[in-house]
Specification:
Layout (H helix, E strand, L loop, with lengths): L1 E5 L7 H12 L3 E3 L12 H11 L1 H12 L7 E6 L1 H12 L5 E5 L15 E8 L6 H14 L2 E8 L15 H16 L2
Parallel strand pairs: 1-2, 1-3, 3-4, 4-5, 5-6
Helix pairs in contact: 3-4
Length: 189
């Protein structure tokens, strides 16, 4: 598979490159665009402030420009938290998308969006301060109405960005379970 992997609000940190290497070792071609142009952050608050300073439209433009050269190949869009929201937006707008792998995040769904049974897999902590139960229920129902084929995996007790070993949220057991399931999902596409 050809995978476009977007970073979180922390920026393009070593954990994103490690995830890309893990995916490459499984035989996938992976791109990790740097939407923050080299900036990384130590706290989610700093990263979110920088994200807001750049603006949603500019970040989406950067993501589209990074993905465009490869979209004809049929991409799997993937991302971590903020990057998952970006991946979701792009996948729902790309009729050649092969799949959507969401790690730690989702996004609003534009009115009237439809897809043809797009395979979607979400991995999220339970509870998650950024992905509340009410939000996830509404998101799941809306994704189903778009025509997506959605699977949701919850990890009790894990922190929000539990796959990043350099953050306090890290949960090795949940992270390894996530990668096992995600790699299996990618094999089916």
């Amino acid at each position: 598979m050809n995978i476009m992997l977007f970073h979180s609000a922390f920026g393009l940190r070593p954990a994103v490159e490690a995830a890309a290497d893990r995916l490459r070792a499984a035989g996938h071609e992976v791109w990790t665009p740097d939407l923050f142009e080299g900036r990384t952050f130590d706290t989610v608050e700093e990263g979110m402030a920088f994200k807001d300073e750049i603006g949603k439209d500019e970040l989406l433009k950067r993501a589209v420009l990074a993905s465009a050269p490869y979209s004809d190949r049929g991409l799997v869009y993937a991302g971590f938290s903020f990057g998952a929201a970006t991946a979701q937006t792009l996948a729902l707008g790309d009729d050649k998308a092969k799949g959507l792998l969401l790690l730690h995040g989702t996004s609003d769904i534009a009115e009237g969006v439809t897809v043809d049974e797009l395979p979607v897999q979400l991995h999220v902590a339970e509870p998650d301060p950024f992905e509340t139960d009410d939000w996830l229920t509404a998101w799941y129902l809306q994704m189903g109405r778009t025509g997506a084929d959605v699977e949701v995996y919850r990890y009790a007790g894990a922190g929000h960005l539990y796959t990043d070993p350099d953050l306090p949220d890290y949960d090795e057991e949940a992270a390894e379970a996530t990668w096992r399931v995600a790699l299996g999902f990618l094999e089916t596409l």
